[in-house]
Amino acid sequence: MIIGIILAITAGALVSLQTIFNSKVNEHTGSWSTTTLVLGMGFIASLLMGLLLEGTGMFQLRHMEAWYWVSGAIGVGVVICLVQSIKRLGPTYGISIVLTSQLGCALVFDSLGWLGLTKVDFSFTKLLGVLVIVAGILVFKLTKFEQADEDSSHEKELPQK
């Protein structure tokens, strides 16, 4: 279990890091070229690591539902939406909303057993956990609104030239 926790923490850090890198690339190119670059480099890295670690066995795709192939196309939506949300909301707020959305969707998918997942019993404590995170994001955002109001009120007090 500890390895799973460490891997999850690492994945969270890598997603945050990748999102920031993606937004920096997007400042110099467009969203579609950023997505192409990110997913293209990811393809090359995955292919090389797969060949190195699994050999040609990685190409034996047995017992796979046809609709699983949609995953790559979903990745395009992920990158485009992340880049655009960071551009409009900033990294912390954008990633907070993304993670909350992931958690909320995971709760629904697990509870209903959708997409081939083993159905997990829904509990109000799980829902409460998601709502606590949403409340944290609201507190974070309200703090930023208050800071912006204070900054604008200080600007009004400055003497004009």
Automatic annotation (TrEMBL):
InterPro entries: YdcZ (IPR006750). PANTHER family: INNER MEMBRANE PROTEIN YDCZ (PTHR34821), MEMBRANE PROTEIN (PTHR34821:SF3). Keywords: Membrane, Transmembrane, Transmembrane helix. The keyword NAD does not apply. One of its GO terms (cellular component) is plasma membrane. This is DMT family transporter. Signal peptide: none annotated. The chain crosses the membrane at residues 32-54, 66-86, 92-117, 124-143. It comes from the Bacteria. The lineage of its organism: Bacteria, Bacillati, Bacillota, Bacilli, Bacillales. Pfam families: DMT_YdcZ (PF04657).
